[in-house]
Amino acid sequence: MSTVDRLGETVGGFLPERGDPTWYVLGLSLALFVGFSVYLSLLYRSFWLTGADFGSYIHMFETTLDGSGFLEQGKYTVRGPDSSYWGGHFTATLLAFLPIYALVPSPYTLLVIKSALLAASVPMLWVLAREHLDSDRIAGLLTASYALNPFLWSAWLFDFQEQILLPLLLFAAYYTYSRQRYVAFLAFLTLSLFTNEFVTLLAAGFLVGLAVASYRGGRLRAEAWVFGAAAGILVVARAIASWAIGQYSETSGLPTDVIAAPLQAYVEGSRVGLGRLIEIVLANPTLIVDSIAVDVLDKATFLVLLLVPVLFVAAVDEVSLGALVPFLGFAWVFAGRDVYYTFGAHYPLYLLPFVYIGAVRVLAWLDLDATIDHDGARASARTVLSGLFALVLVANLVVGVGMAAQKDAMPTTNDHTETLQEGIEAVPANASLLTQNDVFPHVAARENATFTANRTLFYRYQRANEQPRPEYILLDTELETQGIEWAQPVRQIYLGQFGTTYGLEHYGDEVWVFRRGYNGSPTGLSGSYAVEPRTYEPNDFIPNDALTIDGQLVGTGGATGIYYWYGPGTMLPPGDYTATFLVNATSEDARPVADLEVAAGVTPRRIGNETVTNTDGLENVTVEFSLDRMQSNVEFRAVRAGGEGRLALENVTVASRAAVGDTGGVDANGSG
User: For residues 412 and 402, what is the distance between their CA atoms, to the nearest angstrom?
Assistant: First the structure.
């Protein structure tokens, strides 16, 4: 036999036979791998992925490989952007990705790795389910339920994390345990525990559940050494994680702003450990009820949604419950953010493996062949169960597509994204740069690039350190990734320094490139310098003495000096402008019902105004104003002018009166 023939025979021994349903599972897995790899790549090109957590991982790998740091995140937290990821979370398995990234150092590498690992967990579940269930059809439907699970898809779309390893590792761990390959089980369990320190909490419950099942099955005496070894590995993993985090951080525990509101009054300092929280609730048991009562309907709803794809069967399995109870205890009692109890971000990757392991166990325990004697009844039961899973698959698809639509996860590249890319290229590669959350992934490979996604964390850093003074600040005030204006935290932090300390060097389509100490006039991105018209709708304004009625902001006249509404606190480059208020005003006397104003500055001061008394229905009222330098906080507002009557706002449009490419010779970044 030739070498080629022997190789073919060896490979053929691992491949399923022709007609084996495993081919369908592999086809589904391949489709998910290719589909999500392409989809995530398009989302990345569309600036939809964020710095936390995608860009920070790019920065971690880059800084580690070039020797400038060890897993530095580039994110402003209390510890600063040059702090190691291990200062907040310990993960050893993350380092396994470094050689792959070193071979192909690209953001797309991480997206392909993520899709490959999550897609690989699908056939792993199929192998596990087929091993335990007597029906390939039920095993296949359960596997498809996992593959199309909307919580899995939601986590798949969420940037990049080391937790992508967990489904594959945990399915493999339980599979090897069930096959009594205990050394392999301990190996997979160890890899899971060293993926993230949070896994130890769930793994402890998982092991307790397994031990209970082992006792009920009469195997506990024979398997005692396995559970003893597993418990020892868990303790060692937790100890190593605590030691490693302590090497890179002087503080540990949860920030007080992420714990449940009822507990915050009992916490001293800015961080608190889980052990201290447990002490607090044990000393004050009523806090447990108070914490669970916060958004209790949402908590119950999302728990139901988590269990629906497995027809709730995992809820009666001790192994699943062992893992779920610690997580739900944390999410419902101790945590103060809905991302935990709504199973958002990457948290489904912790839970779904245990949920589906429990579903496999319960369906195997039911064993229709053993519990139903009559062939016809057995066939009917399988048909009903298959039908229910089929309904689940349809529901999964509908919910999955709906969740993507809700997050506005539609890849789009257009003139604006091209302008933003030009703005990125306008910043020298070696310059220190601060930018926003959704732009950072595209500059994360730069050693001196940083970002902030949370103003509170930035201020905590600033309390212990001087305010950062990067050479460049890059903002995009049009970009709203996942419905969030990520430019807002940076805008608020440096509000009084734009146009003075930081001059506007380049501008185009609401992409702003600021340079420290720059005093010249801005140049245009994607062509000549120009300021595009922009329209603000009623929901962009803050109502003070007005109500939203039929899509308009409506207020009644009266005593002077009271605001109807104000906002949006926009940024505008230097130039001459016209603000057009589309309003409907009716006054009961000769006095004006409102004064329409334009104001600018950190504490906005009026720079233009026009009174309005009566209009013939909706009419345009224009206010002209000029900015001799870039302003980071421009308001459009209406103030009562003394007349009795009614004022309704449809929108405000701001347009430049300057010719394209003409700034009137004004120093765009003066101190005046």
Answer: 18
| Concatenated DSSP letters of 39-85 | HHHHHHHTT-S-IIIIIHHHHHHHHHHTTS-SSB--B-STT-TTSBG
Q: What values do phi and psi take at 194, rounded to 5?
A: -90, 10
Residue 476, helix vs strand vs coil: strand
- Residues 242, 246, 248, 250: what is their CA dihedral angle, to the nearest 10 degrees? 140
Q: What is the pLDDT of residue 273?
A: 80
> Which structure tokens are listed for 85?
């990821």
By the 10 Å C-beta count (0-12 exposed, 13-18 middle, 19+ buried), 443 is classed as: buried
Which residue has 């009166």 as its token pair? Answer: 657
Per the listing, tokens 């609401």 go with 510
CA-based Rg of the chain, rounded to a whole angstrom? 30
pLDDT of residue 249: 82
Predicted local distance difference test score (pLDDT) of residue 401:
74
Picking from 552, 544, 568, the residue whose alpha carbon sits closest to that of residue 649 is: 552
Structure-block tokens of residue 564: 């109807």
Condensed to tens digits (0 to 9), the pLDDT of residues 176-195 reads 999 999 999 999 999 999 99
> In terms of DSSP H, where are the helices of 249-374?
261-264, 274-283, 286-293, 296-307, 318-329, 338-341, 348-366, 368-371
Paired strand residues for 271: 255
| Rounded Cα distance, 213 and 205, in Å | 12
Which residue type does 505 have? E
DSSP-based three-state secondary structure for 563 = strand
- Structure confidence by residue, pLDDT tens digits, 540-596: 999 999 999 999 999 998 888 899 999 999 999 988 999 999 999 998 888 899 999
Distance, CA of 386 to CA of 283 (rounded, Å): 49
Q: Is 373 helix (H, G, I), strand (E, B) or coil?
A: coil
Helix, strand, or coil (residue 495): coil
Nearest of 553, 507, 537, 580 to residue 647 by alpha carbon: 553
Residue located via tokens 């953001």? 107
Question: Which stretches of the chain score pLDDT less than 50?
Answer: 659-668, 670-672
Other C-beta atoms closer than 10 Å to the C-beta of 75 total: 29
Burial class (CB in 10 A: 0-12, 13-18, 19+), 90: buried
Q: Which two tokens mark 575?
A: 């130039």
Taking CA atoms, 384 is separated from 388, 389, 576, in Å, by 6, 9, 71
What values do phi and psi take at 147, rounded to 5?
Answer: -60, -30
508 within 8 A of 426, measured Cβ to Cβ: no
Partners of residue 623 on adjacent β-strands: 579
